[in-house]
Amino acid sequence: MRILKRFIIVFVGLFAILFGGAYFLPSTVIVSRDITIAAGPDKVFPYVNDLKKFQTWSPWAALDPEMKIQFSGPQSGVGQKSNWQSKKSSVGSGDQEITQSIVNKRVATKLDLGDNGTAIAAWDLSPDGQGTKVVWSFKTELGDNPLMRWMGLMFDRMVGSDFEAGLARLKMLVEAQK
Q1: Which residues contact residue 166 at a Cβ distance below 8 angstroms, ignoring those fewer than 6 apart?
Q2: CA distance 66 to 72
Q3: For a Cys staple, 163 with which of 13, 33, 62, 86, CB 3.0–4.6 Å?
């Protein structure tokens, strides 16, 4: 009986620490990666301001060549939208819409990832010597769900390597256009 009582106390204590501790973790996750491309912002901007061109360097498009993608809205810029559906869990399904476009400086998008929530992604371009520094960022709110807050600790590792791969592909594409 004494062992069972100790087990219950330890179990309840661990549960309280894990559950309560989640509320000391951030409720917002930001992931960011950058790369410098040996080309001016005017050469990089078309690749981030057009979701169709984004597919040519997207790390997720490379993971699932059979992914179904539909585009709507203008040819590029604010209002252009993509909807993708993939059977691969590493790619998933969702919508992305360009919500901000500042020529040769910034493109921001709203992401709807279905059951996985919503997020804001952005590409910020700035001159860097003879090239352009591209910063790709992702921001999402985790809310009050304690499990999501613990998962938030892993977002940088989960998404960061995809951002690095995508930026490397973007660099290769833009620099090959010279």
Answers
A1: 57, 58, 59, 136
A2: 19
A3: 33
Give the CA count within 13 Å in the CB-facing half-sphere of 43: 19
pLDDT of residue 20: 67
Give the dihedral sign, CA 158/39/46/126.
positive
Domains by residue range for the chain, with CATH: 27-176 (3.30.530.20)
Q: Considering the entire predicted model, what is its pTM?
A: 0.84
How does pLDDT run across 145-165, given as a tens digit for each residue?
777 766 776 788 888 999 999
The answer to whether 125 touches 106, Cβ cutoff 8 Å, is: yes
Q: Is 92 exposed, middle or buried (0-12, 13-18, 19+ CB in 10 A)?
A: middle
CA 107/CA 80 separation, integer angstroms: 11
**Structure-derived torsion over alpha carbons of residues 110, 113, 116, 122, reported in degrees to the nearest 10:** -30
How many Å apart are CA 58 and CA 101, to the nearest integer? Answer: 19
> At CA 26, angle to CA 21 and CA 32, rounded to 5?
140
Cα(61)–Cα(40) distance, integer angstroms = 25
Asked if residue 109 lies in contact with residue 121, where contact means CB atoms within 8 angstroms, the answer is: yes
Q: What is the number of other CB atoms lying within 10 angstroms of the CB of residue 130?
A: 9
